[in-house]
Every structure is written in structure tokens, then in C-alpha cells.
Amino acid sequence: MKYCYIYLMLLLLIFSCNRKQENSIDKFDNIINLSVSDSLFSDNELPMGTVLSMKNWKDILITCHHADDYRFSFIDSKTGKLITRWGQKGNAPNEFIDFGSDFFIQDSLLVFQSSMKKSINYVSIPAILRGAKEVLVKTEIYPYTADFRPLHIVPIGNRKVATGLFKQGVLGVLDENNNIVGTYSDYPFPYEVEGLYRGTAYQLVLSCNTYRQRLLVSVSHSDVFEIYELDANGLHRVYVNDFNQVPVVQMQDGRLGIDDSKSIGGILELFNTDNFIYLGYSHLSLKEVSLNDYTFDEILCFDWNGNKVKKYNLPFPVSTFCVIDNLLYVTSLEDNNMTIYRLESDK
Fold it and tell me: Which is nearest to 63 in space by CA: 81, 50, 80?
């Protein structure tokens, strides 16, 4: 009887492990191994520094940089030609104290935050591409209170969704006049940190789909992602994936932080089109990922209902990417040169 009980427990353990692996975020039936790459652009003659994010407007690649004289570069995705650069740091006209941590495209507008001034800036992309000496910048001030401290704001139609430090909820919604509509939802897993500073321990990354009025939300240093829908009544979660790895929080030197040896790199980059979600993913520990400059070699593709579509195994580690039609554009740092490669995603 004793041996039967042990045998049963072993079977349950094996079943549990197999099910966990089967539900793994990067377990796909359709896998595409990309091997042939086309070098599109390199900054070896005009160093631009680390690329923080890359998006597209029509056939134009827009990259934002950390340490360049200009924040944004505009590159023709077909020819690789650098069209222009824009966005200087400073206090002069058409200069900015800061540009936030990311940027977004809304119709034909380049949208970015100035966190220090608590403002959102809207700039015409066609005007930048024309090389106009003075580009009109529309600026809106967003609310920042003791109980509502947005860190990242994503425009979605005439409203905005924010993540940050909130007394209640983890996602905030602003209306067309930047009034606070409300805060919504919670993390889909048990967490150790309570109160306003949950947002420092469990950080969220956002990407929006204005066409579907849907929002992609991922939890940093985890394999967790969710899909929300925005309607007249606010935000509603419509999907959360079967996740296995959540951030492990620790107190170090009196401050909350992520245990980089017990947490994974996880979802490192988000990109979406009207029809698909793309996640740059690493199964390595956060410590290993940080030693590799937060690069990844897998891109996971889902539809907007959370169904798995395909996985791309990349020929080398990349730091950012975007998708135009059936082409993947990825950035890689080689010998201190930033290079953009064009990869055919469908064959």
C-alpha cells in the first residue's frame, strides 16, 4: 500500500510538471527559425547610442535613443536611409527637459511624456519628416496627486491609460480632458507588497490597439500578460495567460526590489499590430538577462484573444523590434555599433 501511494504521488508530480510545461508561454506548435538576415542600417558613421524602443509609422522606422544628441531617429524601412533626427534635450524652444521612458504613435502624431513637467507632448510626424525648422508641439498636463501618480501613459483614442502608483487599482484611465475617470483591476497573482508602492515592486508595461480599443499589459520580470478592453464604463480584463513565473520581491538596503536570481527576464519587449500581439521573451534569470544587456532571442506571437499563433527563434539576441507587414525589424549592438536587421517572418 505504501509503494502504491508513492507511485501515485510520482504520477501526480509528473502530470503536474508536464502540464506546467505544456502551458508555458513559449511552448508553441508553430515555430519559425529565422536564420537569414538583411542588414538594413548601421550607426557606425553616426553613433546614436542604445535604442530604447522602435516603432513604425507607415514605412518609416522610428527609434528612440538613450544617449544620442537627438532622442528620435527616422529611417526608411525599405532603403535603410536615415531621413532625419529630432528631439533635443534642453530648455530652448522645441527642446525638452526629458522624454519619458517610451513613446507612442497616434495616427500621424509622435506622442511622448515629459515626466518632470507632468505633460504629454504631441508632434506631427510629417512635419518632422519635412525638416521644418519649427515643429509645433501640442502639450497637455496630466493629473498627479498623492493617490494617483502615473509613471507611464498610453493614448488610446481620445482617452489614456496609465500605470504607476495608485492608492487603488493598478491601471488608471483619463478622459479626453485628462480628468481621472478611475483606477481599475489588480494583479492576477497573490503579491506581498500592499498600498501605494505596489507599482514599484510589480511594474506594468503597456501597449494599445486603438482599432480594437484593447490594451496589452505585461508584468515586468515575469511571463504574465493580460488583455483589457476599454469601453464607456472603463477597463475590463478579457484575458490573462496561463503564467508560471511571477516577480520575486525582496527588501535590500531598506528598499523594495526584484530578486534577480529568483525572477526571470521574461517579457522584455511589447509590440502590436491591429491583429497580433508580439512579445520579446527570455526564459533566463533576470540576473543573466541583465548581464546580456536585456536582450532576447525569442519573439512570441498571439492574436488579440490570447491564442498562440507562432514563435520566432531569432538568429541572434536583439534588444528591440517592430513588425511591418511580414517583416521583422530588430536591433542588435555589435562592436558598439547599433545595427537594424530586416528579417522575413513568413516564408
Answer: 50
